[in-house]
Design a protein that fits this description.
Layout lengths: L1 E2 L4 H12 L6 E2 L9 H11 L3 E4 L6 H6 L1 H16 L4 E7 L22 H12 L4 E5 L2 E2 L6 H11 L3 E4 L3 E2 L2 E2 H14 L4 E4 L6 E2 H11 L7 E4 L32 H8 L6
Parallel strand pairs: 1-2, 1-3, 3-4, 4-5, 5-10, 6-9, 7-12
Antiparallel strand pairs: 8-11
Helix pairs in contact: 1-7, 4-5, 6-8
Family: Belongs to the dTDP-4-dehydrorhamnose reductase family.
GO molecular function, one term: dTDP-4-dehydrorhamnose reductase activity
EC number: 1.1.1.133
Length: about 270
């Protein structure tokens, strides 16, 4: 069972599972209201899934600052209802559970300290799913839905230059790679716990934008670096979101490949 099946990751995951011949129940918000515990119980009883991958989330980071209770209902409370069954739960979480003050990659067991409402609500979801698999990801892009990479593709066609922040470091992560990693984890029989589902390496949003321009055959110098202070937003963002990947060894799985290699692999399927 995949919840949030209409989203960027959910769509990718469902497509890849079905391509493998898996029996998948794909549920989007219209088909399952995760805020209705009775509806969740009924869906679980009817479908009896062996594995649940919860891709459903309140992802509007800035809006969560204004309505944390609503975000918590989706990102935290609803997860508890999914966890209350015999299926293996894979809960998709976020780098935003960390405060971003580190200088080396965050280990899976590093202390959490979210700096915004979105991070706090996703941490609540982790606590609800503590007996299952928690896969933290970050800087997602893919073919399904809006994301930074596709925004840069659009701006490249509209503007002579673009300004992009250079003071936030992280790991751009392709939904295709993450979907494959989640599938492998679900089939692995690995011990439950926290796993970091991001592509390897590190860069800034500025560095990612330059790579996008290069792949478009455009001059990367059209991308100009700037600071986060120039683009104030309601929710503070962690300045350092690089995650470590040591836990995959416990699952007998290799970590995900470098972000540049993944972006090049994803490129033929990305479009506006």
């Amino acid at each position: 069972m995949v919840t949030g099946a209409g989203g960027m990751l959910g769509t990718e995951l469902v497509g890849r599972l079905r391509a493998r011949g898996a029996d998948v129940v794909a549920l989007d918000r219209a088909e399952l209201d995760l805020l209705d515990p009775g509806a969740v119980r009924e869906a679980l009883a009817r479908h009896r899934p062996e594995v649940i991958v919860n891709c459903a989330a309140w992802t509007a980071v800035d809006d969560a600052e204004a309505d944390e209770d609503a975000a918590l209902a989706v990102n935290g409370t609803a997860v508890a209802a999914l966890a209350d069954c015999d299926a293996r739960l894979v809960q998709i979480s976020t780098d935003y559970v960390f405060d971003g003050t580190a200088t080396e990659p965050y280990a899976e067991d590093a202390p959490v300290a979210p700096v915004n409402a979105y991070g706090r609500t996703k941490l609540a979801g982790e606590l609800a799913a503590k007996d299952g698999y928690i896969v933290r990801t970050a800087w997602l892009y893919g073919a399904h839905g809006p994301n930074f990479v596709r925004t840069m593709m659009r701006l490249a066609a509209e503007r002579d230059t673009v300004e992009v922040v250079d003071d936030q470091l992280g790991q751009p992560t392709w939904t295709g790679d993450l979907a494959e990693q989640v599938i492998a984890l679900g089939l692995s029989g690995a011990p439950p716990g926290v796993y970091h589902g991001t592509n390897g390496g590190r860069t800034s949003w500025y560095g990612l934008a330059r790579e996008v321009f290069a792949l478009l055959g455009l001059d990367p110098e059209r991308v100009r670096p700037t600071s986060s202070e120039k683009f104030p937003r309601p929710a503070p963002r962690p300045a350092f979101s690089v995650l470590g990947h040591d836990r995959w060894a416990a699952a007998g799985l290799a970590p995900m490949r470098d972000w540049r290699e993944a972006l090049h692999a994803a490129w033929p399927g990305l479009s506006l």
